[in-house]
Design brief:
The protein contains 23 helices and 19 strands. By secondary structure, it is an alpha+beta fold. Mean pLDDT is about 80; it is low at about 1-5, about 265-275, about 585-625 and about 630-640.
Length: about 775
């Protein structure tokens, strides 16, 4: 008699079993959500619910466990991507949400974890928990529906509940969730037992009524509820608590090191400092002191040097609106999240510059500001750009915000176009300014006429705006003394009038503000820019080290066809001298001889200061910019190489005969190692080891038996190999020749000293297995086999 495979009618498709299995797995994720360890934990509850549903449906289906696992994996990837995407509160496409935004955050978190740093983004913890809960929930409901096995499912769920409760020391919350979980599991266990007995009674011809079923269900609920209430009411003595604590420590001690490592990925909102370092925000006051800290903020490695005469200012934000000693930005700006693969800022058609490339490395955790120089044409990480719309095809950069924040040690690449216009070129520019620059002419309503009068006295009103800007720069550097600490501005006093006429000391915020406002009072567009001075340069490594004391503010003046040009009125910084030049030539980009370098006292009759020590480097054309190597490409290459090496290693250890190596197979090594150390060998390892030691003929015969199993022909174990082969060929005539070959080689291997043809035998084994799979699939999908 031929036994057929179990059908869908053999499933444990009881509605109460499915319902309480789903409640049990959801309770575990709900318990995790209740800890409030980090944000967005609620998505794990929905994910677990969908995982439970997937397990129930796949458990009831006809799919084999392997195929069901494949479908569960696909469902899980889709649900995780969708749920995680809902946490991104940005107006971007779903592709950008998942691949760019979430993918980048996950990549940064993994990099922090690998660098043994505290992970500052909860996404890694959420992803790990999501994967574990999906596997646990879908597997639990699948096993219950497919096999009716309860304990292999409930034990992992119960351990998970205990672990969460152990690390969330809230007694009332622990009691509520544990009692609820116990109730669901007791009902589930009882219901599975009831259904099991009903099946036995049906096989024995014992009939039961619906009233009997209802009585059983009512009694089960009552019994489970009584047990839970009793467990809640039974007091626990201090001695029992001590014993339980000792038992828990003995169980968890071997995992302590793993727990500490795993804790690195958990961002606790209640205990972890998640403060974002934003040195330059939406607004900036003049302040009362300048930083003197030598703490390093970031370093900059020069990959493609700019022209030698170029001064690096590490820009992050500019402001246009000044009121009551406070700088901010006027409304109407556009904010957009840009990614490396689509980064493009549509600057106006200003005069082309030279290509330059830099690698910035953050030395501060959770840094919100992102720094560039010149006009950035590409940034190698996600960044939020704040721009002013000029026209439908043009925009001007206002601010750069790292999104997500820069983590400690993160490196990002910036490619920019930089230019060094000559003084003669700027003097030839026009003064017909476009309308979009009106915001850069704003002055406060109570702007002091004394400041306007000073500006008019400093400059020659018939001069070009460039000469006016130079004159004001010269005045500030000569007449205002640098002071890192300022006394409070007297109440009711205009800060700029007080700075220019009374104290006549200050730091960069005051210098830059004074120059911007004086230029605006003369009708010249100017803006207040913040970031960092270029810092200390190491010519050996071509690296700038930028410290907090290098934080800086400077004015930028607009020139038609050239855009924004920086000036340096702060006397603590080296004077910024543009090449004179009559016409722009290559010589304008060459560093002058040291003796010819303009000193501050040469130009402004000031005390001598240090030279700009940026080394002279030949100009490099934009075409010479080296091609970028995308970090994603490198990661994929490394991943493929790693997987290939891993695959070959495992293949050699498991199938050394393929490579004609006299190695002992991996499972045999594992079994011998356990026996040597007097450890119990698991049954699965014994079977694996036995399989690895089989000859080619034995493995081929085993595949013939698998072929019969696939067809649902689970024949009598007493049947001989020849009888099994005949049984197979009656259903699949094409299997006659390979089945005959398997039987002949099997007999030679087992009952003679003759050598067998291993290659031919192996091929025959795979042939019968392949034919059986094709035959089975054709029956499932009603396709005529070829």
């Amino acid at each position: 008699m031929i036994k057929t495979r179990r059908t869908v009618s053999d499933r444990w498709g009881d509605i109460w079993i499915a319902f309480f299995a789903l409640l049990a797995v959801v309770t575990v994720s709900w318990r995790l959500w209740a800890t409030e360890w980090t944000g967005d934990l609620y998505i794990l509850v929905f994910l677990t619910f969908f995982a439970g549903i997937a397990g129930l449906v796949l458990g009831y289906s006809r799919f084999s466990p392997l195929l069901a696992a494949l479908f569960s994996t696909l469902y899980g990837i889709f649900c995780m991507g969708w749920l995680f995407g809902t946490t991104v509160d940005l107006d971007i496409t779903w592709r950008e949400r998942i691949i760019n935004h979430l993918g980048w955050r996950l990549q940064l978190s993994i990099a922090q974890f690998n660098a043994n740093q505290a992970v500052t983004d909860p996404i890694l913890f959420l992803v790990v928990m999501a994967v574990l809960l999906w596997i646990m929930a879908s597997t639990a409901t699948f096993i219950i529906i497919r096999q009716g096995s309860v304990w292999p499912v409930l034990i992992p769920l119960g351990i998970t509940m205990l672990v969460i409760s152990h690390y969330d020391q809230d007694l009332a919350r622990n009691s509520r969730f544990l009692m609820t979980f116990m109730f669901f599991t007791l009902v589930l266990i009882g219901r599975v037992n009831i259904v099991n007995h009903q099946r036995q009674w049906n096989q024995e011809g014992i009939q039961t009524t619906h009233e009997t079923h209802a009585d059983f269900t009512y009694a089960l609920f009552t019994f489970a509820l009584v047990l839970v209430i009793l467990a809640w009411l039974i007091p626990i003595t201090p001695q029992q608590r001590t014993r339980y604590a000792q038992l828990w420590r003995s169980v968890t001690e071997p995992w302590e090191q793993f727990r500490e490592r795993f804790a690195d990925i958990l961002v606790l909102e209640t205990t972890t400092d998640t403060t974002v370092v934003e040195l330059f925000g939406d607004s900036l006051g003049l302040g009362s002191w300048a930083s003197t800290s030598k703490e390093v903020v970031f370093t900059v490695a020069v990959d493609l040097p700019p022209p030698a005469a170029y001064r690096n200012y590490w820009y992050t934000r500019s402001y246009d609106l000044y009121e009551d000693g406070q700088w901010s930005s006027s409304p109407g700006l556009d904010s957009q999240l840009r990614y490396p693969d689509d980064f493009q800022i549509m600057f106006p058609a200003w005069t082309d510059g030279q290509a330059a490339a830099y690698n910035f490395s953050s030395q501060v955790a959770r840094l919100n500001n992102l720094y560039v120089t010149g006009r950035p044409v590409w940034v190698g990480r996600p960044v939020e750009t704040v721009t002013q719309r000029i026209s439908s095809t043009e925009e001007d950069l206002v601010a750069l915000i790292a999104s997500p924040e820069l983590y400690l040690g993160e490196t990002y690449r910036v490619e920019s176009m930089v230019s060094v216009p000559t003084a003669s070129q700027l003097r030839r520019t026009g003064t017909e300014y476009p309308d979009w620059l009106d915001r850069y002419l704003q002055l406060p309503a109570d702007f002091s006429p004394r400041v306007t009068g000073l500006a008019e006295a400093i400059v020659n009103l018939d001069d070009h705006p460039y000469d006016m800007a130079v004159a004001i720069t010269r005045y500030l550097r000569i007449n205002i003394e640098y002071a890192p600490i300022m006394p409070p501005v007297p109440t009711g006093t205009d800060p700029m009038a007080w700075f220019l006429f009374d104290v006549q000391t200050g730091f960069c915020n005051y210098y830059a503000t004074a120059q911007v406002l004086m230029l605006r009072s003369l009708g010249i567009p100017a803006r207040f820019v913040v970031g960092y001075a270029q810092g200390d340069y190491d010519s050996t490594t071509q690296t700038y080290t930028v410290r907090k004391l290098d934080s800086h503010a400077w004015p930028e003046v607009y020139f038609v066809d050239y855009g924004w040009v920086p000036f340096e009125p702060t006397v603590s910084q080296p004077a910024l001298i543009l090449p004179a030049g009559s016409d722009r030539t290559e010589a304008d980009f060459m560093s002058p001889e040291r003796g010819e370098t303009p000193q501050m006292n040469d130009v402004f009759d000031e005390p001598e200061s240090k030279l700009d020590e940026t080394p002279a480097i030949e100009p490099v054309s934009a075409e010479a910019l080296p091609p970028r190597v995308e970090s994603g490409t490198v990661a994929w290459v490394l991943l493929v190489v790693f997987l290939l090496v891993l695959f070959l290693t495992v293949l050699i250890l498991m199938r050394p005969e393929i490579f004609k190596l006299g190695l002992v197979p991996l499972p045999v090594l594992m079994e011998r190692l356990l026996i040597k150390h007097e450890k119990t060998v698991p049954e699965w390892l014994r079977r694996w080891s036995s399989l690895a030691q089989m000859s080619a003929a034995q493995k081929a015969y085993r595949r013939l038996c698998w072929a019969l199993s696939i067809l649902g022909l689970l024949s009598d174990p007493a049947k001989t190999p020849a009888e099994r082969a005949r049984l197979l060929t009656r259903h699949i005539p094409q299997a006659y020749q390979p089945a005959l070959e398997i039987v002949n080689q099997y007999h030679l291997d087992r009952f003679s000293d003759h050598l067998i043809n291993e290659g031919l035998t192996t091929v025959a084994g795979w042939q019968v297995l392949s034919l059986a799979l094709k035959f089975r699939l054709s029956r499932i999908f009603k396709v005529r086999p070829r």
